[in-house]
Amino acid sequence: MTTVAAYAAPAAKAPLERTTIERRAVREFDVLIDIKFAGICHSDIHQAQEGWGEAIFPMVPGHEIAGIVSEVGPGVTKFKVGDRVGVGCMVDSCRECDNCKAGLEQHCVKGNVPTYNGTGTDGEPTYGGYAEKVVVDENFVVRVPEGLALDEAAPLLCAGITTYSPLKQWGAGPGKKVAVIGLGGLGHMGVKIAHALGAEVTVLSQSLRKKDDGLKLGADHYYATSDPKTFEELAGTFDLIVSTVSAPLDFGAYLSLLKTGGALVNVGAPEEPIALNLFSLIGGNKTLAGSMIGGIAETQEMLDFCAAHGIGAEIELIGASEINEAYERVLASDVRYRFVIDTATI
To answer: pLDDT digits over 77-106, tens only?
Structure first.
């Protein structure tokens, strides 16, 4: 066991505070990672505030982890000391079900083991990336290519894969019109990746406040959803819409923006249920879908793609003492576009 410093929420809705946690000893197939940077995802806030249901406390959030390998178990073949690596939203799965065998560990039938707010196969609670070090099985660690700065790579482990996966699955590419709802931590990555895939990209945001940013990030068009004319003008326009927001939307209105056979895919997860008139799906043979991160192989594919296209997250680097303030700013949409903790400050 190794004792490391971390920032934890001692209880639901309580401010995070500095503490220490125990990391397990390195086992045969484990990798010990010196965490250098940890992104702050909106889902960290949902879970620390029990917005998605009962949680495990004390909680060390953080599933956007980038660091350097400092020790490997005797059976490890994929990594060596000194490698630049990342850890995303899960650290284990059953590895035996059809989904796991198909590289869809995120949909493990028995449930994947989340990086934090979960229970490992050893029965111990999992603690995330707001910490100095983490021990992870090599099969749930990915390589960060040399072309990516570690601080800009950290958010790719959630925000990057969460948008890359549906864009790939629903065929974003040349000749396709793709809209991204929301230009936040997820949305800005969706714009960058959809643009790099060759799609014509539109941002649908509440206001035009971030329009200049959106166009710089790769959007071809930018519309305010607070303007009713937007929904008239864009009716029947898009092959694919990816919603990155965590607020309940008027899904009927957004479905009207799809072409016949188009898909609206949700990666944002509102805490409240939604209401939907199914005629908005039936008319036009449309799809309302969800998507959750990606498997380990697809996460590596995403990192390689981002490195090849020079794509990192737009970040604001903060010290650990600023985490609680950062949470408030995320809730106020006051971040361009992802807070990343310099874990040397923990």
So the answer is: 999 999 999 999 999 999 999 999 999 999
DSSP letters spanning 153-205: HGGGGTHHHHHHHHHHHTT-STT-EEEEE--SHHHHHHHHHHHHHT-EEEEEE
Nearest to 40 by CA among 260, 323, 257: 323
The candidate with the shortest Cα–Cα distance to 110, out of 124, 123, 122, 95, is 95
The string over 78-95, giving b where at least 16 C-beta atoms fall within 10 Å of a residue's C-beta and e elsewhere, is ebeeebbbbbbbbbbbbe
**Alpha-carbon radius of gyration of the chain:** 20
Whether cis (ω within 30° of 0) applies to the bond prior to 327 is no
Torsional class of 107: left (φ above 0), alpha (ψ -120 to 50), beta (otherwise):
alpha
Residue 318 CA to residue 75 CA, distance in Å, equals: 36
What are the angstrom distances between the C-alpha of 146 and each of 190, 211, 320?
A: 22, 31, 26
Side chain identity, residue 336: R
Secondary structure of residue 36 in the 3-state scheme: strand
- Which residues, 6+ apart, have CB-to-CB distance to 200 below 8 Å? 176, 177, 178, 220, 221
* Confidence at 272, pLDDT banded by 50, 70, 90: confident
**Token pair of 112 as six digits:** 């994947």
> At which residue do the structure tokens 């989904």 appear?
99
Tell me the whole-structure pTM to 2 decimals. Answer: 0.95
Structure confidence by residue, pLDDT tens digits, 178-228? 999 999 999 999 999 999 999 999 999 999 999 999 999 999 999 999 999
Distance of alpha carbon 212 from alpha carbon 128, whole angstroms: 34
Look up residue 153 and give its two tokens: 């790579």
pLDDT of 250-270, one tens digit each? Answer: 999 999 999 999 999 999 888
Amino acid at 219: A
Place of tokens 């997250």: 313
The whole-number pLDDT of residue 310 equals: 97
The token pair that represents 183 in the structure block: 């230009």
Residues 60 and 126: beta-carbon distance below 8 Å: no
pLDDT band at 44 (very low <50, low <70, confident <90, very high): very high
